[in-house]
Amino acid sequence: MTGQILQRLPGMAMKARRAIARRSLVHRDAVVGYLLLLPLLGGLLLFRVYGFGYNIWLSFMNAGAFGAPKFAGLDNYQKLLGDTQLRVAIANTFKFAGIAVPGVILVSLALATLMQHRFRGQSAFRAIVFLPAVCLPTAAILVFGWMFQTQYGLVNSALQAIGAAPVSWFGSAAGVTVVVSLLVIYLSFSVPTIILYAGMQEISPNLYEAATLDGAGPARQFLSITLPLLTPSLFFVIITTTIGALKLFDVVYVLLPPVDHSVSLNYGFTLVYYYFYLAFLETGQRGYAAAVSLVLLVIILAVSIVLMRLQRRFVHYGEHG
Amino acid sequence: MQAERKAGWRLQILIALVGLIILVPFAWMVATGLMTTGQTLMVPPNLIPSPPTFDGISEVFNRVPFATLLVNTIAVSFGRAMGTLVICAMAAYALAIIKVPGTSAILVGILVLIMVPGDIFIVPNFAIIASFRMTDTLVALFLPSLFDVFGVFLLYQFFRGVPRELIEAARLDGASHLRILVTIVVPVARSGILSLAILSVLSEWKDLLWPLVVNRSIDKLTLGPGLALLRGVYTTDWNVVMAAGAMAALPMVAIFLILQKQFITSFARSGLK
After folding, report:
1. pTM of the model
2. What residue in A sits closest to B204 (Cα-Cα)?
C-alpha cells in the first residue's frame, strides 16, 4: 500500500519518508550512543555519585566497631571544630604545599629555561628530567629516607664532612618539613617542566630579537617577555601542582609509617593521611573520617576556585584572546 | 622561539651538574643495593660498594614475594589500561561522534567530577568492594578507577578531530557504530589512545593509598604498596630495601627509555591529572 501512495504522490512521500528515516536513524543512533555510555555512567553512578552520597550519609553516623552505624546528628561536625589533630593535619598540608609548590615552579622554570638551549647530551638530559616521574614513587621515597637517615645517611655524612653538626631529620618538625618538601619537589617537577618548556617554545623569537636590539639583557628579557607570555602555562602548572600537593599521602606514609606514631602524628599527618588513619587504622571512626573527607573536598575546591579567579585576573592570553 | 641558542661552556657544566643531582638518588639506591648490610653501616659511608654483592638482591626474595608483586603490577596495569580504554573510547564516541541528546550536560558532569579529588572516595569504594566480596583480589585494585572521567575528556577532544566525512561515508556504506569506532575513529585518534594507555598504566603503577586500603594480604598487592610494607619492619637492612627499590623501579624506567617520545607527549597532555 505504501508503494501505491508513493507512486501517486512522489514528491510529498519522498520528503515524508526521508523525515521518518532521519528521525528513526537519529533515534537509533541515540540508543546506540546511550548503550556506549552505559558502562561509564553506570560505574560513575556507583563509585562516584553513590560513593559521594554514602560519604555524606556516613558523616552523620557514629560507625562503631560493632553493629550498624547509628545516627549521630551533627556530632562528627562538632568534633571537627575541636579536633587538634585535624588542625595539625591541615597546618602540615598547607605547610608542605606552601613550600613544595613554589619549589616545583622555580625548579621547572629553571629547567625549562635551560632546555631552551642547544647543548651536548640534550636528549639524555631530557630523559633524566623525566626519571622521577616514571620511577616508582615508593622507591624514591625509600631512598630519600635512607639518604636522610640520622647515623649512616649520605646527607648527614656530607654535613659532617664539611664540619657541620648532623641533623635528626625525622626528629623535628623542621627536619620532616625539609625532607617531605624536597621529596614532593623531586617527584613532581617533571611534568610542569615539559609544560613550561612547551609554553616557552610558543613565544615568538621576534620579541627576543627586538628586545636584544633595544638593549635588554637576558634577565630583563625573562622578566618582561618570557614570564608574562608564559602566564597561561604557569597558572595551569600552579593549579595542578597545588591540588596534587594538597592531596599528599604517599610521601608522608612511606617516609613516616604509622608504626612510629609520635613522628607521623605531629609532623607528618596530612589531611589525606589523617583521613586514611581514622578510617582504616582506628576503629569506629569511619563516620568521623567521612566528615574529614568532606573537609578535604571543601579545601581543595576552595583553593581551586581562588586560583582560577586569580588566573582570570593575571593571565595574559596574548593579542589573540 | 628563543631556542637553539647554543649553550656556552659554563651553562654546559651547569646542565651536567643538574643532571647529576637528579640522578644521585638513583645512583645511591643502586650502590646501596649492591652492598652488604655491614657496608651500609659505615661512617663515613662507602660511596662505591666494594666488593659489590648480590646478597641484598637475593635477600629481597626472602623478605617480600617480589615476583608475585611484579606479576600483579603488570596484570593490574594491563587490566586497568584495557578497561579504561574500552570504557572511555565507547563513551567518547557517544559524546563526540554520535552527540547523543544531553551531551553537554554529561560533559559538564565530567568536568565537575575531574575537579573532585578521588581520595575522598576510598571509604565508600571500600564499602562497595567489600559488599561485592572482592577485597583482596587483583580486580579490586583497578575496578573503581576504570571509570576515568579525565580519560573520557581526553579522548573526547581527540575524537572531535576525526574528519566528519570519513564517518559519514562509512555510515552510508552501512557500517555500524561499533565498526566505525574500531576501524576508523580509534586508528585516526591513536595518539590520544596511546596517551591514555600510558597515563592509566602510570597511575596504576604509582597508586599507593587505594591498594593499601582494599587489599590486606601482600600477595595481592602491587610493587609500590608491597615495598612500602618493607619500611618500618626492616629499617636496618637498607641494602635489602634499596635492592628492592631499584629492582621495582627498573621495569618502568626501561619502558620509558624505549617509549620516551610517547611518554613525554602523554605527560604534556596529562593536564589535570
Report:
1. 0.90
2. A136
